[in-house]
Amino acid sequence: MDIIKVENVDFSYVSQNDNGKQISNKVLKNINIDIPEGQFLAVLGHNGCGKSTMAKLFNGLLIPQSGKVFVDGIDTADENRIFDVRQTVGMVFQNPDNQIVATIVEEDVAFALENLGVLPNEIRKRVDESLKTVGMYEYRDHAPHKLSGGQKQRVAIAGVLAMRPKCLVLDEPTAMLDPKGRKEIIKTIKMLNKDFGTTVILITHYMEEAAQADRVVVMEQGEVVLDNIPERIFSQVEFMKKIGLDVPQTIELFYELNKNGFSLNLEILDIEEQAEQLADAIKGGNYGISN
Amino acid sequence: MLRDITIGQFFPGDSPVHRMDSRLKLILNLAFLVIIFIADNYLALGISAAFVLSLYIISGISLKFIFRSLKPIMPLIIITSVLNLFLLTGEGEPIFKLGFITIYWQAIDTTAFMILRLFVLIAGMSLLTYTTSPIVLTDAIERLLSPLKYIRFPVHELAMMMTIAMRFIPTLIEETDKIVLAQKARGANFEEGNLITRIKAFIPIIVPLFVSAFKRANELALAMECRCYHGGDGRTKLRQPKLAIVDLFAFLVFLLFTIIIILTNIYF
Ligand SMILES: Nc1ncnc2c1ncn2[C@@H]1O[C@H](COP(=O)(O)OP(=O)(O)O)[C@@H](O)[C@H]1O
Ligand SMILES: [Mg+2]
Hints:
The complex is a heterodimer. Chain A is built from 11 helices and 10 strands. Chain A has helices at 51-58, 82-88, 105-115, 120-133, 149-161, 179-196, 207-210, 230-234, 237-242, 249-259, 271-283, and strands at 2-16, 22-36, 40-44, 66-71, 74-75, 89-92, 167-171, 199-203, 215-220, 223-228. By secondary structure, chain B is mostly helical. Chain B has 10 helices and 2 strands, in the order H-H-H-H-H-E-E-H-H-H-H-H. In chain B, a hairpin with a 2-residue loop joins strand 1 (96-98) and strand 2. Classes of the chains: A alpha/beta, B mainly alpha.
């Protein structure tokens, strides 16, 4: 069963210029994506290629001008069911400071449930459960502004998890965090995906994060240009460089070595396996360096 | 430099005063205001002072915070006291006369009474913010005002605004700090020059601050929408205030206090 189904979607931002004339800026062109339940999907693409816009289609924050988006079978354009859509697809943004509404951690996590009119006992239960899941239960009565970036972002995730979404969309959730916070978030996301079967859509600029996904979608100027398992994506080093993206550093190293006569397999992302492969190549005396 | 500002200091605790229902606390606080203005003799004020003092002791809040709460209104008290002393007249001979300054015994009496009354009043009312967290207080205000919804007064929106303001004040203060430092690093000078120059020096702080505040507001609105926010309709609350024994007890104590004050008014 596909949790999200995007069919022939075009999206334009329409605004008025100084003369009152409407100008429309086409940001997404003919997007088609099916995301099966339980998948961990990473979305890559350089700034302004339309990743955030696409993410906003996934929970009905934006409605496409043409084409359809279905969330768990519900058309996101159906206004009567918008809260079902938003409960199914939870969204986490880049800046944790700007997602936290309340002055106390547990109050913030309760926010979505309060909006949905859930009964107080049930709210209590789900707030505790969500905070425990992201490992922030001990901080439940703290003030958010005193937490670290990674902790704040985990609170933001808990605030969304309280709705028990089947799918989590994270729009560059680690972009503003230090390496430690980044690790915390990635660990949390992977745990949600593995242990709870939550579908995860992770928009990111970090190739090492994308390498851990089940599937990677690469966007360029409003179009999906690559859609494959990470091993098949990152082995296309030249293409990735052409559209202004990086590959994980180990792949980059292997790519450079291959240029100099090595024949290393670029379709392996596991660091241990890569190390073994490199060690074997060196042991075999296969340096291949001509000078 | 700005980081230390706090609004409404709250001292967490587990005393009966802390545990009281915040709505009742708010109402009794207002009732206290009325009673202190009804009290018209020194005995009544003395009893009120003792009442407030014992509440501080019960809630475990250091008595030095009584003085801290009085600090901001000191200038006001001093100015009105001086004006009262010189301007009020009384019967009989003035007890002090020098040039155009005359002071009557009655003026001293009235002024002293006024000062005492304000002291008791402020100390008593400060206890509310000392023992109630801002979020609980906001909640209490929302609940107490909720009947006004029927005349289309935006009660929920008001409470939401207060909550968001409280949430973002520390964030924006931190941000101001950063901008100030950034501008200083570029050679901005906030300490020298005449008033106009100094005001001008603040423009490069205000503008980025506003730009960022609007950006934050935009993102917060999106995040709220993602969490199904749609105003106050059909909203429930995590915290369900319930009246408990401690509230009944508090109410009875307060009633007793009120009766005593009224009796002193009648008999003294
Ligand atoms: N609210 C908006 N109004 C008008 N144009 C927008 C808006 N948001 C984004 N855009 C434009 O849409 C394009 C894609 O933006 P976005 O989806 O944010 O890209 P990404 O997240 O990949 O960086 C950009 O050119 C951007 O300028
Ligand atoms: Mg973006």
